[in-house]
Amino acid sequence: MTKDSHSLALAFGDKTRVALVSSHHALAQLVIYVLEFNQKSISYQFEGQALVQSPGSDFVLIETPDLSKAGDLEPNIALLTTSVNLKQHQALTSHIVNGGILVYPATNSELDTELKSAPSFFRKIPYELASIESQQLNTPLGLIPLSFQDPSLSENLEGIQHLLQHLGIMEDEFYEALIAFNLQN
């Protein structure tokens, strides 16, 4: 880890550091939307943009497609999405703090096997890719129509939901916000 990389982790040392590893801004936008919909504050930085500070927030979310940069954050919580090359996952997984959480697509059996020998102890939560039929998502609340066409957003919905649960958003709060997000887009 370089001096600059270490300073990234130190800059947010008092906050729960959340890495969203994705090349699609729509995923990070949905995360922020759901949090704001439920009156939860979070500081965040999207790839290539300035940090948005939220005074009093316990969390900082960094969105990047770069596994090394995500690892440099020394995240407490990380979400790997289907839009990144998971073959270089060690750049991230070797830097998740002890006791942290990794949410990742269950479709990659090689990653699943390699995570068992990760150098630090953290919780590993695989998620299934969402099956969207006729632009509707089957949920415990019933069918939710989806107005967005982004396949990356659709297939990573379960991963986003798991991430948000660790930020204090319950399942019904997630789906209520998702319905409102649909109406907005």
Short account of what is shown:
About 35% of the residues lie in helices and about 20% in strands.
Report the sheet with the most strands, covering strand number, pairing sense and barrel closure: 6 strands, parallel
Computed over alpha carbons, the radius of gyration is 16 Å
What structural category characterises the helix and strand content?
alpha/beta
Q: Architecture in CATH? A: 3-Layer(aba) Sandwich
Percent helix among the residues? 25-40%
Q: How many discrete domains?
A: 1
Shape: globular
Number of helices: 8
CATH fold-level assignment: UDP-N-acetylmuramoyl-L-alanine:D-glutamate ligase
- H/E series: HEHEEHEHEHEEEHHH
What strand line-up does the widest sheet have? 2-3-1-4-5-6
Question: Cα distance, first to last residue?
Answer: 40 Å
Q: How much beta, percentage-wise?
A: 15-25%
Number of strands: 8
Main CATH class = Alpha Beta
Average pLDDT for all residues: 86
The CATH homologous superfamily is called Mur-like, catalytic domain
Main features:
UDP-N-acetylmuramoyl-L-alanine:D-glutamate ligase, two-stranded antiparallel sheet, 21% strand, 185 residues, alpha/beta, 6-stranded parallel β-sheet, globular
Task: Describe the 3D structure.
The chain has 185 residues and is an alpha/beta fold. It has a single domain (3-184), classed as UDP-N-acetylmuramoyl-L-alanine:D-glutamate ligase (3-Layer(aba) Sandwich), CATH 3.40.1190.10. 36% of the residues lie in helices and 21% in strands. It contains eight helices and eight strands. It has a six-stranded parallel sheet. A two-stranded antiparallel ribbon has the order 7-8. Strand 4, helix 4 and strand 5 (100-105) form a beta-alpha-beta unit. The longest helix is centred in the last third of the chain and has 14 residues, at 171-184. The protein is globular and about 40 Å long. The model is unreliable at 1-5 (pLDDT under 50).
